[in-house]
Amino acid sequence: MTKQTISFALLLLVGSFGPFANGASAQAFGVNMGDSVSNYSAEKLNDGIYRIAVPQPNSEFESYVATATAETGICKIAGLGKDHENDSYGNSVRTAYKSIQQALSQRYGNALKEDFLLSGSIWNEPDEFGWSLYKKERKLASFWDDEEGSDLPPSVQAIVLAAKSVEPSTTYLQLYYEFSNYGKCKEIIDEKDNAGL
Predict the structure, then answer these.
(1) What is the 8-class DSSP label of residue 37?
(2) pLDDT at res. 3
């Protein structure tokens, strides 16, 4: 599976700054809750999933994917990070993660931080960081939401930053903003997906 295929699946399954106008976030790569994907040169990838061009890209991320429906507009935006190749030790992705994590914490305050290897994992050597991510036995992620006491704008209900791997020695970051309309949006997508069952 490619990095984008994995990330698109995660967008469907997961859950997950200055002034605001009409409840819209001024950040989230410059994307506003409820906007039509057509505002961002969208390419449809799957039902409810679109690759878009964002107004405020970040150099760590090479592509951006929005979850949206006609009824709700955009309800989630994810940045898919550039590849950190030959990163078996995780040094490169950890450096990038720390930089983005600190910037987000400065802006949004408290976050739940997870950095651990699952108990019993055999991928426990220093040069097996990439392998442990690839095998989904390691977690390096931060979560901003109301439960953590984060200072989020009204249009955003959660922000998640996580390290991922699509190959044993290639790592990348994923950062997504889940908007307050995500619940309704996901309900609509799920209804369409289940219509033929």
Answers:
(1) G
(2) 53
Q: Is the pLDDT of residue 13 over 60?
A: no
**What is the pTM for the complete model shown?**
0.86
Number of domains in the chain: 1
pLDDT higher than threshold 70 for residue 14: no
SS3 24: strand
CA–chain centroid gap for 159, Å, is 7
State which amino acid sits at residue 189: I
For the chain, state the CA radius of gyration. 17
Q: Which residues pair with 50 in a beta bridge?
A: 44, 66
Query: Average model confidence (pLDDT) for the chain?
Result: 89
Where would I find the beta strands (DSSP E) of the chain? 43-46, 49-52, 61-69, 73-81, 112-117, 138-145, 156-167, 170-179
Most distant CA pair in the chain, distance = 50
Average of pLDDT values for 170-196?
Answer: 96
What is the domain range of residue 51?
A: 3-194
Check if the beta carbon of residue 76 is closer than 8 Å to that of residue 176.
Answer: yes
